[in-house]
């Protein structure tokens, strides 16, 4: 067997392992948060080397199905349930069994001509809310939300968020999200963001920008979020329809 055949054999083996474990995870046989067997156990189960197991686990990690923690092992991330961010992150994560704590960094009146022009808002007078969110012992997101400076929302810099939920405050002000758009990208965090999140500058985070509107097209919120990809992932469902 030449070198090419050896590499091909290893590739096929790790793909077989990754496919088998992915099937178990997606079927629910392995629940979110459950620890996978160790490398030695997996190598024995599949009759391969530990190096082949590592390659398979790296593939599952890249796919967002597991996370591997140095010295602790690999744990399931995927639970098969969509997360509805329309509820607000706190409720959406809680619905998945993930308890989080939110810390408000600041609430300020902000005049943003550029954002107002981009979103075609009637007024550039906005309220900016900055928050970080933690799960377990680490921070997993940094969020900046702009809401209209109207009615009771004008008082947010003084009164703060009642109960910590911006979604509830918006609803109480008569602003119910009906539709909107969201964009997803990824980027390295800068020095200030790294300091706020307790991470290293340049670490890669998911970046979402979501703008929401009421049923009568009144502006509700524009939120720019940095999300730790170890705790968040994007899942799209689609169907293909053929035209006659």
TrEMBL record:
Span of domain HTH gntR-type: 11-79
Domain of life: Bacteria
A Pfam family matched in the record: GntR
Protein source organism: Actinacidiphila oryziradicis
Name recorded for this polypeptide: GntR family transcriptional regulator
InterPro entries tied to this protein: Bact_HTH_transcr_reg (IPR050679), Chorismate_lyase_/UTRA_dom_sf (IPR028978), Tscrpt_reg_HTH_GntR (IPR000524), UTRA (IPR011663), WH-like_DNA-bd_sf (IPR036388), WH_DNA-bd_sf (IPR036390)
Alphabetized UniProt keyword annotations: DNA-binding, Transcription, Transcription regulation
Molecular function terms from GO: DNA binding; DNA-binding transcription factor activity
GO biological-process terms attached to the record: negative regulation of DNA-templated transcription
């Amino acid at each position: 067997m030449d070198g090419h055949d050896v590499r091909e054999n290893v590739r096929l083996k790790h793909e077989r392992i990754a496919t088998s474990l992915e099937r178990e995870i997606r079927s629910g046989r392995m629940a979110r948060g459950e620890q996978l067997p160790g490398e030695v156990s997996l190598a024995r189960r599949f009759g391969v080397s530990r190096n082949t197991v590592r390659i398979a686990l790296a593939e599952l990690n890249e796919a967002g199905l597991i996370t591997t923690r140095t010295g602790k092992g690999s744990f399931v991330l995927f639970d098969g349930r969509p997360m509805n961010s329309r509820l607000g992150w706190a409720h959406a994560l809680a619905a998945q069994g993930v308890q989080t704590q939110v810390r408000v960094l600041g609430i300020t009146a902000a005049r943003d001509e550029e954002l107002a022009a981009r979103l075609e808002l009637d007024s550039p007078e906005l309220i900016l809310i900055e928050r970080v969110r933690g799960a377990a012992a680490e921070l997993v997101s940094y969020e900046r939300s702009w809401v209209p400076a109207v009615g009771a929302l004008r008082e947010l810099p003084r009164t703060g968020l009642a109960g910590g939920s911006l979604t509830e405050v918006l609803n109480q002000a008569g602003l119910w999200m009906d539709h909107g758009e969201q964009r997803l990208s990824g980027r390295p965090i800068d020095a200030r963001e790294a300091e706020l999140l307790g991470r290293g500058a340049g670490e890669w985070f998911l970046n979402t920008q979501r703008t929401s509107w009421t049923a009568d097209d009144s502006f509700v919120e524009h939120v720019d979020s940095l999300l730790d990809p170890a705790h968040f992932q994007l899942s799209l469902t689609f169907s293909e329809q053929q035209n006659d």
